[in-house]
Design brief:
Elements: E1 2-5, H1 7-16, E2 24-31, E3 40-46, E4 53-59, E5 62-67, H2 71-74, E6 77-84, E7 87-94
Parallel strand pairs: 1-6, 2-5
Antiparallel strand pairs: 2-3, 4-5, 6-7
């Protein structure tokens, strides 16, 4: 598993979600939707006290992380979080 978040994407989250340096943002699995896993999609949530962290990356002062319970969704991929046309995009590439 590899998670890459561009500085521009981190700034987008900070502005859109009123995040401050030191805040945590969780990527999690949600039922329904389309992704590399049929019927599942990616969700995000601000989390005050992250627990059971499987993977994390700090970008622009924000702790982006994936919980242990959701690592199956990401473990065979390099996930790149970028900005395209002023929107966040998620690109899953097999490792």
């Amino acid at each position: 598993m590899k998670l890459s978040i561009t500085n521009e994407a981190a700034q987008w989250y900070k502005e859109e979600m009123n995040l401050r340096d030191g805040d945590s943002l969780q990527f999690f699995v949600q039922l329904y939707g389309q992704s590399v896993h049929p019927n599942y999609s990616l969700g995000i949530a601000r989390n005050e006290k992250p627990l059971n962290i499987s993977y994390h990356s700090i970008v622009e002062g924000i702790n982006f992380y994936i919980g242990e319970e959701d690592k199956w969704f990401f473990e065979d991929y390099h996930v790149s979080v970028t900005i395209f046309n002023n929107e966040v995009t998620y690109d899953f590439k097999p490792l």
